[in-house]
Design a protein that fits this description.
Strand content: 15-25%
Structural class: alpha/beta
Shape: elongated
Mean pLDDT: 89
Number of strands: 8
Order of helices and strands: EEHHEEHEHHEEHHE
């Protein structure tokens, strides 16, 4: 499997350099794009990829999003035409230009779920990962599993985090700012409460990441009690 490549430190938009999202934010944005508008789009459903959505693995390789399928299309290119153009445009838009290309390759093992020890914070999407429709239930479990003795200050800090992404083995929490991310570690009891909540959910050594990216925070998917 090709290595995942970190993003550059900045990107240029309209002649002005801006800070590029960190690699984990890029990966999560790509996952959210894929599970949101891509797999439900008419162009995707009508394409050769439409029947294989659950078996496609996605990897970031440099400035490209690579779709790996367990089906060999021979000399055909499933990204040819409007679908490929639309994907490239949207991938570039959501990543701030860090990822600009979309490619495809065949691998007969692409549809197989990956073992927990082979995953990382930079995973984009793998077969077996839940869809966005599963996130509210995961969020409800995380809220329920927060330790009962968690202090109010810690609950307030954690409440600002958004459940940005979920894989078969990992959870990503987006903080609305760098200060909010830092507060998780600096507020007494907050880091422990989050650790305990994820551990009770995964029932193994918890695999999760807190990172700063306001784009990953949905108001209806924050840890704040509802």
């Amino acid at each position: 499997m090709p290595p995942e490549t970190p993003s550059p430190r900045s990107v240029t938009t309209s002649g002005r350099a801006t800070a590029a999202p960190e690699p984990v934010a890029v990966a999560v944005r790509l996952r959210r794009l894929w599970l949101g508008e891509v797999v439900s789009s008419r162009a995707f459903l009508r394409s050769d990829l439409g029947d294989a959505a659950d078996e496609i693995a996605l990897h970031r390789v440099g400035n490209a999003l690579e779709l790996v399928t367990p089906y060999d299309f021979g000399d055909g290119d499933p990204l040819e035409g409007g679908l490929g153009r639309s994907l490239r445009r949207r991938v570039s838009a959501v990543t701030g230009g860090v990822v600009r290309e979309v490619s495809w390759r065949y691998d007969d093992a692409a549809g197989r779920p990956v073992r927990r020890t082979r995953t990382s914070d930079l995973d984009v999407f793998r077969p077996g990962d839940p869809g966005r429709d599963a996130y509210p239930d995961v969020l409800a479990e995380l809220r329920r599993r927060l330790p009962a003795d968690t202090a109010d200050a810690a609950r307030e800090v954690l409440g600002a985090l958004g459940l940005a992404a979920v894989s078969a083995h990992r959870v990503w929490f987006a903080a609305p700012s760098a200060a909010a991310e830092k507060a998780v570690g600096s507020t007494p009891g907050a880091a422990y409460a989050l650790f305990a909540s994820v551990k009770r959910l995964q029932r193994k050594e918890p695999l999760y990441r807190v990172y700063a990216d306001a784009d990953g925070v949905d108001e209806d998917l924050t840890l704040a009690p509802r």
